[in-house]
Amino acid sequence: MISQLSWKIGGQQGEGLESTDRIFSTALNRLGYYLYGYRHFSSRIKGGHTNNKIRISKKPIRSISDDLDILVAFDQETIDLNAHELCDGGVIVADAKFSPKVPEGIKARLFAVPFTGIAEELGTSLMKNMVATGASAALLDLPIDIIKEVIKEEFGRKGTAIVDKNIEAVSRGAEFIKDETGGPLPELQIEPADGQRRLFMIGNDAIGLGALVAGCRFMPAYPITPASEVMEYLIKRLPKYNGTVIQTEDEIAAITMAIGANYGGVRSLTASAGPGLSLMMEGIGLAGMTETPVVIVDTQRGGPSTGLPTKQEQSDLNAVIYGTHGEIPKIVLAPSTIEECFYDTVEAFNLAEIYQCPVIVVTDLQLSLGKQTAENLDFENIEINRGKIVSEIDPREDGKLFKRYEITEDGISPRAIPGTKNGIYHVTGVEHDEEGRPSEAADNRQKMMDKRLRKMENIQVTNPILVDAPHETPDLLIVGMGSTGGTIDEARSRLDKDGISSNHVTVRLMHPFPTEEIKPYIEKAKKVVVVENNATGQLASLIKLNVGYAEKIANHLKYDGNPFLPSDIHETCKELK
Amino acid sequence: MATFKEFRNKIKPNWCPGCGDFSVQAAIQRAAANTGLEPDDLAVVSGIGCSGRISGYINANGLHGIHGRSLPIAQGLKMANRELTVIAAGGDGDGLAIGTGHTVHAIRRNMNITYIIMDNQIYGLTKGQTSPRSAFGFKTKSTPEGSKEAALPPLELALSSGATFVAQSFSSNLKEMTNIIEEGIKHDGFSFINVFSPCVTFNKINTYDWFKENIVSVEDIENYDSSDRIMAMSKLMENNGMLTGVIYQDKTRTSYENHVPGFKEEALNKQELKLSEEEFNELVAEFR
Ligand SMILES: Cc1ncc(C[n+]2csc(CCOP(=O)(O)OP(=O)(O)O)c2C)c(N)n1
Ligand code: SF4
Ligand SMILES: [Mg+2]
Q: Domain A465-576, what fold?
């Protein structure tokens, strides 16, 4: 028996692949397997090749695999494009309707199953995806009852007739495979899992949930891949908590509305990707200058411009750190797992209010959209800290305003929410004095700049870097961020077998850069490899700028739109060592 | 109850003597007092321009944001605290050039906000360039040969975008302007108010006298019915947009806030943020 395998389903966009994937993976999740999903899709809605890959494992996994065990194909294109990933002895399950062929040189077994044929016999070719679901389940010898249970949940509101038809389609698919194979194929039999129902979600769900739990009650946003799921999550849940989502006219409205709401005392966030982030820059500067808390989620995708809208990239780092004119206090957090997407979003809201500045949570497409198993989220770990909000304010002499921008030692001033008795002050993006009144005086300007930037000097963030450092002086230190963490670890276990020792640092606080925290690990490593999905090595540049050691820092870059594979990192590290 | 003097602060506006914006400032202060507000209950959110400075010249919560974005900021604030009276204000460039998109969408969204455009048909702060309100042929620093673009008609734009309150006034008529702003504050929805507010320094064509000669009050139009949208549009067109008064009001449609599922009368910013453990567990369980 094997402990893990990879399954992929492919076809034309709009053929129901999503629901096959959802039902199949939900069933596996119920059985207790750890899952890691990857969606390959294009920005077309109908048509265009698309595929979903799931890695299934008895033990925790946080990466896609190099190869593939089972390929479910709705068309020949799927086979032609993906069969090269199949391992020796891999299996193709394809719709008999298109007379599938195995490409030359590929050693895979083909089972042609009448997906469409069976579905049509049952009344509609639309159910061919359910036949494929059944065939997949049978190959893994999964208990069919689990699939039935999930189908009942998925189609329950459409009535029992629909549920029964779908179950029938699944059963027929399963039976067909069993007849073809004459029993479970031993090389595809995965060890049974523990039956524990773990969380199974995408990063954007975790961000939405984190926002809700953090007390966010308002989200203005403009749809964009791969960020929209955050708003879709919140619009379904916020009404119960008296809050709402507004789909704005653009991202400029989204960021400025979020600023208005935060100014008004309501925790509010917006989420977007590169193009929207670019539009938000002036607004982010306003939040920095007026010391208004706001949380912005940037789900990175392929840039520049419209770039590769549905593909993986990590190229907004410079934009989130430097992308506003002038100099403002700002915090940038980069979660690297589903759990961190949740906790970091909660922390982002606290940081925004404690330091009264914009906080950007930066993810990448694979982290935002890849559906994964997550560890349980802990209620005890959630704390809401609203910083220096004051609610009782003494009356002042006539003409004086509340000192919203009072110069303090830590740079953080007391904050009154509009509507608070005696709490009137002025807010402006123009340089201002302690009451918020415009002022161009040189001396005031200097004091105010220093005050705002001083807030960043002692910022307290939990785990600015995440470290796995079993070696005192490793051959390699691998540094990464975002979704690459699991892939790096998988490559490291292979390096171990090659006798190459490696440590791993994930940068979680991108700005202000955790120089002191990361420095000792860089110092002690013989060589540093920075792994990032961009073309210019933005993270490596940040490290060189802040920490130094340029001579021992090498890049491992990938910017073809696809996430790293463990083998990519393994091979490069072997060469670079 | 606060008097209009309590809405004054001690700041001396940096507007040129004679600038139309002084009257807008006074009208907002009077309208706020007349509607029974206290300074703490009022927020003025403004854009960038000479006009944009207005939020600093009224004793109330004030936010002077970025060019063209007063409306989304004001709407975010209103969502956070619907108990606040929110007035947004800015120039014709602010609301009809860089911020046109927000203007149109704020109108169709119809939150309970009052929006005042201080329309001087020029860019004042940047020292005299053409504005979307400048007439065809209007000569400015940026249009030395005269503007080759047609002027944008704000009231027709507002009406066709689904506005529920459309009004226009003139800086010389403080009484009418105060009245209109008061009506705007009371209107349950988005109130769009364009005010002819002459720039005495850079616009030598659209002067106080010029406006006086060209405007027509709806009160002087026989049988004018401000609930009749078609009449409003045709009278506006007949008069080249130069009508003053409340031009259109739809009292049947209530503001956006009242239509948001789950949205409460009580200000959102007063509500409990922390979820109970039970609520949390329920949300997490969706993913199992
Ligand atoms: C994004 C941006 N672009 C340009 C400017 C420069 N700017 C400031 S005010 C203004 C136009 C002012 O005209 P208007 O809105 O009509 O206001 P007025 O000064 O006439 O009251 C411009 C172009 C700016 N502040 N921000
Ligand atoms: S330049 Fe014009 S708009 Fe600006 S303050 Fe002077 S008169 Fe008013
Ligand atoms: Mg103007």
A: Rossmann fold (3.40.50)
